[in-house]
Prior knowledge:
The complex is a heterodimer.
Chain A: H1 2-29, E1 43-54, E2 57-67, H2 70-77, E3 82-94, E4 97-114, E5 119-124, E6 129-133, H3 136-144, E7 145-153, H4 154-157, E8 164-171, H5 178-186, E9 197-200
Antiparallel strand pairs in A: 1-2, 2-7, 3-4, 3-8, 4-5, 5-6, 8-9
Chain B: H1 2-38, H2 46-78, H3 83-119, H4 122-158, H5 162-176, E1 180-184, E2 190-195, H6 208-215, E3 220-224, E4 232-238, E5 251-257, H7 260-331, H8 346-387, E6 392-396, E7 402-405, H9 408-413, H10 425-431, H11 436-442, E8 456-465, E9 468-478, E10 490-496, H12 498-539, H13 544-575, E11 583-586, H14 587-597, E12 604-609, E13 615-618, H15 620-640, E14 650-660, E15 663-672, H16 700-710, E16 714-720, H17 731-735, E17 744-752, H18 763-767
Parallel strand pairs in B: 12-14
Antiparallel strand pairs in B: 1-2, 1-5, 3-4, 4-5, 6-7, 6-10, 8-9, 9-10, 11-13, 14-15, 15-17, 16-17
Helix pairs in contact in B: 1-2, 1-7, 2-3, 2-7, 3-7, 4-5, 4-7, 7-8, 10-11, 12-13, 14-15, 15-16
Amino acid sequence: MRCWKNAEVAARVLLAVLAFSGIWLGGGLGFGSGFGDAQAASNAEITDAHAEVREGTVYLDVRMAVTLDQEMIDAMRNAIPIHLTLSARIEEPRDWLYPRTVVSDDRRYRLEYHALSKTWLLTDDLEHEARSFSTLYGALRSLERIRAWPVANAQRLHGAPRLVGRVRLTLDIDKLPLPLRFPALFDSRWALNSPWYLWAVPRVTGDAS
Amino acid sequence: MKWQRLYGFLIRRLVPPVSVMVVVLLLVLMYLVSESLQRANQPEKLYLALLGASAVGLLFLFGVVLGHILRLVANYRRGAPGARLTARLVLTFVGLTSIPVLIVFYFSVSFIQRGIDSWFDVQVEQAMSDALSLSQMAFDGQMRTAMTETLRAADQLKGVSGDLVALDLNSVRRSTGAHEMTIFGARNLIIASASDDLQQIVPTRPDETALSHARAGKDYIGLDPGADGAMRILVVVPLTAGLTGDGGGQVLQALYSISPRANQLSGSVQAAFNEYRSLIFLHKSLKRTFTLALTLALLLSLLTAVWLAFIAARNLLAPIRELAAGTKAVAEGNYTHRLPVDRRDDLGQLVQSFNTMTARVRRAHQVMQQLQELADQERDYLETVIQHLSSAVLTLTPDGRISRCNSVVATLLSVSPQAIERLSLLELCQQHPHLEPVCAAFAPLLAPGQLTPGATVEAQLKIMGDAGRRVLLSRAAALPAEQGDLSDGFVLVFEDVTTLIQAQRDAAWSEVARRLAHEIKNPLTPIQLSAERLRRRLLAGLADEPAQILDRATQVIINQVEAMKFMVNEFAEYARTPQSTPVLLNVSDLVAEVVDLYKGSEVAVKLVRLEPALPVRADAGRIRQVLHNLIRNAQQALIEQPVAEGVKPRVLVSTRLAQEGSVSVAELAVFDNGPGFPESMIDRMFEPYATTRPKGTGLGLAIVKKIVEEHSGLVSAANRQLAPPPEGAVEEPSDLSGVCLVTGARVTIRLPLAESVPELVPESATESVPGATPALSSEAPEHLPSLQPDALAEPPTGGIGHNPAESPEPGNPSDLDFQGNERHG
């Protein structure tokens, strides 16, 4: 009986140790540090997307609404660039199966603060062009309007009966500095991923090309 | 069952190697994580993948450990062998490993926190900001010059008409030293542009803020980082009052290059500043990340420690568990359990010893069982022997209670063996008064210390049992005790010597008779001849008076010699053992023949045949002699001792089938209505020379007995009592009506039937060789006291005996104990 009690006490101590480690681990993961602070959350949303075919290429115009949390602005002001990816997909839905991806294209942007010139830089990887803005607002305004993004060669869409286009904006966590990556996975302040926005793929006629 | 087996297989075979792999993998992951932490931004996707893999691995380990813990708890509750020890060992191992790990963990975390905090310094931070400001200030001079130059250029361009502006712009640009100059019109359309870089077709688009600034009539100056890291000075001024009407809407943007050296220096300052700022911003996250990595390492260590503790405990305790199970099996009586010996350490030796011990116990147990069986056989053997002894055996406990007895007790002591179990000797005698002599002889001996073990006390007892009087040779002995001086109980042995004593007596009489006949008969004839010769020679020549004397004397001699001769013949007859030739005959017919001879004799003889057919294997002549002896005896008794007045002396002979236990026998009985046998003689009635008549030799009944016993029969004599006839007394009242054989002597002979006859006669008839009608109740003679029914049990000898004879064979081979049924109503 006494032996059993000793064992029980020891088992409880062990459990307590494990629980303690678990809490520590949870703290280490960044849980609870502003987690669930809905008002301060970052947000991105595709408000409009429109595609048209010109000269054998599908061009996509996208409008977005991007709200950055103060935490992200602070990060940029502290010389941490933010990489954003605008992903466009053209898919062919299939019965009983996940849709077949016909076209997939990503467009990457880097948003950073230039301390010396006190300007905001928005770099477009596609155009290899860096534009400086004296305000963050200007930079975001520029980002929110994407014009004439050549998504695909119209040839690839030829003959497909029914196509669906999707587009979304995501925060590229892997490009964040390492200590931020894990918290950014779970922190709403870093939750900049927009939901998929569906857009209509224009009919590609035979003489389009 | 199948699933359980599969589960067991998985647990036993797969989990340990997988766990080892997981632990190794986790160690590698930890190493990679720490490496990636050091190398900051290098691996992109790897980090999260590593974290995910670690989490999965840890979960697996956690699952394994949890499974172990749950099983241990279940075993503990169930009290499975080894569970407690396993729990203690596991807890010890876990304690031993987790405490140092936790201590190291705690200090590591503290050091990381403090170490990272110590990277930052307010002064350094300030210095960094100052350096940046200094860099900016370094550009101030250039920026002022650029502003002045641009304003001058704007003045030059004010007067130029719209079409010529483009031509003039390049010369103006060169004069100001600007890298690029662009004029924006309404809606930010480019009106004209000039650049040093001929390859650049599209001029740099200005910031909308700056443009709107300029449109409002204000000058804008700032640094433009540029795409390739080469900073430039950007100046935007309004071009007021141009040649066109709407020139107020035009702005001039000028870009001035900065010297590469300044660019480089400012770039490095900004890089350092950025680095420092980002570190400050990230230091909390960094601490968390380090803590996370350490926590993962801690969890890995702890889980691995617990898991290894379980495995170590299992390996350590496997032989102990087997030992416990083996011991339990042995305790439950299973001695065939053998444990595998697969170690060479101390536990292996222990298992070896256990096996040896079990084998020895098994052998001992087998020997014990064999001994037990032997003892059982021995006991059964003794039991059988004792049960088949002719002696009655009683064993008594040390406190004098009967513990066991054999079946002969029923016969010899006339008590049921079951009824006397656990009785003390005194209680036995109280319940069975006829055993009083036993108590008298032995009860005092049973007191402690009276009878030393091994000593034997003998006594000859006479008891009255169901079968009459018995002489028992009794021995009492104390059983040797295993310890101490007191005896371990007693044994009483009773031997029936009744017939033996009788036989001895008969043999002695036969010898006497033979010698008497031989010694006396020889001189008798010369005596007789001499007397006759005297008479013949002298009688004629003598005078009257002497002649008369001689005549009387010789006559007396001759008569007496004649009488002696008769007597000697009788003795000779008694001692003689003629060759008997038994044949199958109907004894009932034989009796009828004999009775016929007595028709018209002085005393009437009547025959009552209750059973017409009584087949008996017998010598007819000898049986006739028996009947003659008995009838004559009865007649003479009636003649010599006259019956009461008004009663006609009669002799009655009856034949019937009687029941002796479960066996039927032929019964011949001779009754008379005389005074009966004298009470003093009745015990010895069949012994030679036992006679009540003055002229009798006392051999008549002795010969009867001898002959009957030669035929394996039994003879008894009794006086019939004055009593009302018992119910079922069939024969006598009906046949002897008016004859009134109420009292008188009776001699009964029982002979075994030649073939087994089914039980024809009812039990009551057997028991009632009854008295007579109640008519002559006054007939009771003086020598008919009320006898105990059993008092006649001992074979009586004829009261009216006649002749001597030779040695009888005691008892009958078939041993139908006929005497037992002698009853007197």
